[in-house]
Records
---
Amino acid sequence: MSLVDELKSAVTPRAALLVIGVFALQMLFITSYVGALHSPKPTDVPFGVVAPQQVSTVLMDRLEKLPGDPLDPRTVADADAARDQILDRDIDGALIVDPRGRTDTLLVASGGGTVLSSTLEKMFTQVEAANQRTIRTVDVAPASPEDFDGLSAFYLVVGWCVGGYICAAILAISAGSRPANRERAVIRLGTLALYSVLSGLGGAVVIGPILGALPGSVAALWGLGTLVVFAVGAATLALQSVFGIVGIGLAILLIVVAGNPSAGGAFPLPMLPPFWKAIGPYLPPGAGTWAARSIAYFKGNDMTASMLVLSAWAVVGSAVTLVMASLKRKQPEAEPIATEPDEVRT
């Protein structure tokens, strides 16, 4: 057999297309991660200002005109209200001006991301120095000492997402990428649900009682993990039921390539470029990371939107999987194994 014949036999058109698809996915991975994370800077960070009226007007105007629009300032009634808004995740920080002295108080919440809180502290050190004032920083929702840079919640959710799409991929390709009937689809979804419960519990126990990396209710993290894993798995099953094996690549595109860099893990959402900042809250890694941090550091506040996003992925993914399994369709024939022609013909 000649080299050309060997290539034709070994490299089928389908295999060539899959390799091209992998190359495209690789380039998108590099573009997405580098594009999102190579130059973080704060933009329109929700920020509160507590100050007397005559001071507040001038200070607000100065903050609104800072180069690059790093802040979205708004006046807050008093220090207690500022603390409450930070814990409710309505704002990411606040400046409390002391009209009787020259030292003001900066409130931050490193539990929402230490990079952002450090950036705010550096920014306001410079702003206050220009007015011959100083600041003292108070962390109202501090990250755990065992949670370096506040990244544990992000890594936990990434692990749950990886388990979700790998489990779904294995369930689907073990007997064909498209469910043959509704019964098989129900079995796959049921297996995925059981896996999600176990995976959610395992992640919550490892990151909490075992490693001590993340505070917060183990039960709440368990419930969140179950939903994250099932949402990602159901979406993967749905994509596979529509696109076949290519659906695995599409799931990786959504969850890994688009979802992880936009999740607000390494850098909180206000520090991401506009595209990633816009899509992050609507993808499972971003919704899961936000909810995990809320459980750990913000008393479970402001989780409704994230839980609705994850629930939508779970419900829509399950529905598409069941609908596609119910359609009458001819099952794709197995790809024939290439055989070599007889070297000696008789």
Note: Confidence is low (pLDDT under 50) at residues 330-346.
---
Amino acid sequence: MGGGGNDSYGKKAFKRSKSHFTDRITADGRDGWPVAAGRYRLVVSRACPWASRAVISRRLLGLEDALPMAIADPIQDDRSWRFTLDPGGRDPVLGIRHLSEAYDKRETGYPGGVSVPAIVDVPSGQLVTNDYQQLTLDLATEWSALHREGAPDLYPQALRDEIDAVMAEVYEDVNNGVYRAGFATDQEEYEGACAGVFRRLDMLSARLEGQRYLVGDTITEADIRLFTTLVRFDAAYHGHFKCNRWKLTENPILWAYARDLYQTPGFGDTVDFDHIKRHYYQVHSGINPTRIVPLGPELDGWLAPHFRQELGGRPFGDGTPPGPVPAGEEVPAQGRP
């Protein structure tokens, strides 16, 4: 979304801002930003589905030490994402209170809002990129020299055309579709977006009925991008965004698929349902003016057996699961089932 303040949500036409800062961090440094362990800081919110892609990819690939992470407060103010979870309300590495300060160091008066995920250059304190579409693809490919031993190939060369096609459909109708429904300003706009969400979910359900993952027999970037919307569906999009034809828990195939991924190391251990719910219901005051956060849904079902292993598939291909969550990055108890 662009700017306008939290109370503007649902009161003006929805348009997702394109990433303004599209520099890439690459192995050869062709944009002036070479891959280097410890040079950059990944700024995320556990509430944000776009940022959660990067959190999951980073963990699956074992980049925790090479790319340290800052976690913003899920309740952003009209200025931007805040570091109020850290002592003194400042990020301990960048020394800033708001992510907007890193944006301003890069360019004053930039168009669009302050978004996560964002990668900041630690030595200069300036933003490098907020290109959420490209960022995780580069983590999977350009950062390969720093991947952990046994890291999965999340963007295999032979399957990229199919992965790209699936991701494009998921983005348009599901990832972004829920927002177009939730922030619609008239009935026709809402109904078109909501119908598109469920039409695509029905198609994805049919695709996943006979195969464990979206493309091939291993987890790929396509699964990460669908998961980050599904895991928020019943907690936020069903009620808050009025995508309520059915709940995720009422679709046997997608619910089992989502549980399978949630229970896979690197997925569920990055999800904070408390951050998710407080962000959506308290930040989007334009569509939830009371800012009341609902008590539900119950979360125990995320740990129930899914039986998707009966379809075969190898979650990490020839690789291995990631190790334990690094100290200091664990999801607090109130955010877990």
Note: The chain has a mean pLDDT of 95.
---
Amino acid sequence: MCAPPPFGEKPLAGEKLPFGEKLRAELGSPRRARRLDSSPRSRVWRAELSGTPVAVVVVKQLTEGPEAAERYAREVAALRLASRVDPPVAPRLLGTDPAERVLVLEDLGEQPPADDWVIGYAESLARLHAATSPADIGLLPAWSGPTREDIDAFLGLAQTLGRTAPDGARTKPHEAVRTELDALVNRLAHAPGHALLHGDPCPGNDLHTASGVRFIDFEQAALGNGLMELAYLRIGFPTCWCATAPAQPLLNAAEAAYRTAWRQATGTDIQGDLTDACAGWLLRGDALVERAHRGTTDHLSELPHRDWRWGTATARQRLAHRLGIVAQMTTNGSELEHLGRLASAMRDAMLTRWPTLRPLPAQRPE
């Protein structure tokens, strides 16, 4: 989940900065530490280090909790891989204390994002993705896509909404769509690529600096196909507190900037299907809730009975947007033609049942 930018500062209020002897010996002694806002899964401070000139750093500690050691290991590995990219796309990792799950990072500073921020964001995302090669496979977990349980949940929602098959289907209810979705899940599971995926490339996890966009918070980093994260722009930032839908001209420019930056960094065109990537996010009910609630229940089955707000949008707003995008991207003759027709019908049913649903905001929160 991305935190609402910008980060606020607050006094330590009696907390001890986790900066042990190992880090002091390597980097110097910290002073004037100020706590920053962060997710519940970490504690973050800005501090000065002794020396001439005085250096300002960010100290991050992964808190106790589920998969804390794995999240720490992912972040350290991802930052080291990202450090290959020049100009940088992430802060420099200055020091670590594995016993305390502490990272010390350069303080980048930041400035408000421009109105066309998605273009620079997409360019930096492509260069981040291009940091890795086949030789890096195994240094991070492989990206995991939707499952057949997600297919069942999605088709269950369609049935609840009264849409059991796309118009024109000549098969039993849902059979045509299920065949397409089974093939989709299989394609996504075998999508080519070893890109360095951020895991949560959300507004708030991108810092806009004088030297370009840099990404922070790599706790969910993985290796996979970069289109899975390029899809964030079009499908509405599915893992993010701040879901937005950029205007079409900006979206087109951002996607073009991504492909150009990838080609310049790798000498190749990116492999895979953006339509598949967007459809994959549509299936995932866990992409309607913040991380703490993922993997706990079938969120799609709850949506007809209640709506809930997460950040800039409600669950129904998010789903209606995704349905519309997938309907637009799937045309006659495509591999997901029946899904596209069903998605359009489901969106129409939602707008009829809940006529006050609003589009996703076009701009990120200030």
Note: DSSP finds eleven helices and twelve strands in the chain.
---
Amino acid sequence: MTETASRPTLEAVAARAGVSRATASRVVNGGDGVREPLVERVRRAVEELGYVPNQAARSLVTRRHDAVAVVIAEPETRVFADPFFGLQLRGISKELTAHDSQLVLLLTEGRDDHARVGRYLAGGHVDGALVFSLHLDDPLPELIHGAGVPTVFGGRPGWGDGTRDAAAPVYVDSDNRGGARAAVRHLVALGRTRVAHITGALDQTSAVDRLDGFRDVMADADPRLVVEGDFTPAGGERAMRELLERCPDVDAVFAANDLTASGALRVLRERGRRVPDDVAVIGFDDMLPVAEQTDPPLTTVRQDIEEMGRLMARLLLRDLDRRTAKESAERGPSDVILPTTLVRRASA
């Protein structure tokens, strides 16, 4: 007997449940209009027989593919090297799995990839998209808007032109500015007077918001105490070397993320600067594989990265359910800003 022949059919489910094939189909494929006792009988028959619904048939009824695109606007070398992305993907995956929806990962290495992602989304393969790590000049928002798929963004979108604002983007973010203020205030409370900031990539809103938080506290700081980084350990090393050349009397550093801080710590150690005795260091993220493994362990601003991913997926799924039920657009998802907290360890 072949595998196809041994696979239970919808007719077998209907017979086991004692209902018509049409009734069994409506229950299995997510339709409505079936009394609850019959629904329970069909579901029990599905479980007993091990029936797997035909996705194509289900999509005809629900107009859903049970698949969500996760678009990360970064090359794969960055995505697989930075634990931030793994944490966010884990949160997304957990939420999608709990709702029996598949994750389709799309990365962008260059402009050709942007066009490919736009074509894929416009092709009707997924129900919606989750997009994060956008850069200010990124064409993805227009491509996604043109594809017409429901979308939730990770991080505050930074565009300001009318075309993009008309799309009323929904996003999940952390209180980057408030977290930065807390970090810098802590350094000031320690008695540090030459507090520097190594930024993230300033074409991303999270880096801009953290820089603004630094400036909220250090409004009169020497401009030389701000050096641009790029959210990577190498960028942290490069910026720390430049900072020490500019301002050798620096006594504290707020780094835009933990990876940047790890690079800065390596340079300080190479230069014989004791942490925190000579220079106190604070990061941002509280990614435990990084923050607890630095020497010394890193004081940092915690944002719940996995929860951000989970909330992104939850908002999108709720919006898809609303659209399936044809509910009012006024009940659509709204933005979420998660709080941040300062986690004290040995570096500051």
Note: Residues 303 and 340 are 5 Å apart (CA to CA).
